[in-house]
Write a structure and sequence with these properties.
Structural class: mainly alpha
Shape: elongated
Strand content: under 5%
Oligomer: single chain
Number of strands: 4
Order of helices and strands: HHHHEEHEE
Strand order of the largest sheet: 1-2
Length: 182
Amino acid sequence: MTVEKYQHSGRIGLLGVPLMGFFGGLSAILLGVVYAYAVAWVPFVFASFIFTAGFGFLQGTVVGWAGKIAKVRNSGVVGLFGFLTAGFGLYISWAFDGIARFGSEDFPAVLISFEALQGYIKMFYAEGFWTIGRGNGATVSGIPLAIVWGIETLMIVGISWLYSSDFTADLPFCEGCRRWSK
């Protein structure tokens, strides 16, 4: 006697892509704005680490939830939406970073112009806007800052991808009943 392990059918469903896109995009915008302000205003590195992981976790949760509601039985597709919408949320956070740090009168163009956003990122890379250490600590810029950004990006999109793709991976689906089972 052989025991077969349950495996999803891989079906996406008619509402899968629109619901994951809509709710994933909406949460990416909201989380991106909140993340930009949180990272700009909270001076504690440990808190920034928690914000970064939380951003990825919440984004993955929303996309996974939307995939579950839409009855998407393809973990790869749900994970892809988690990855893409987290990347979009990171873009939004960059668009609001300058506004959070310096005010909207100085940085409104980054919201509508990719070139303006690119210029802001280059300026941030060259000058650095935060320090390590107490008092007159060392300003972080250049390659060390790019490494921090790389880790931040990997955390946000990676956690979102992992969590969203795993959201219903162990939850069986009854194809005849068209609902999730226990």
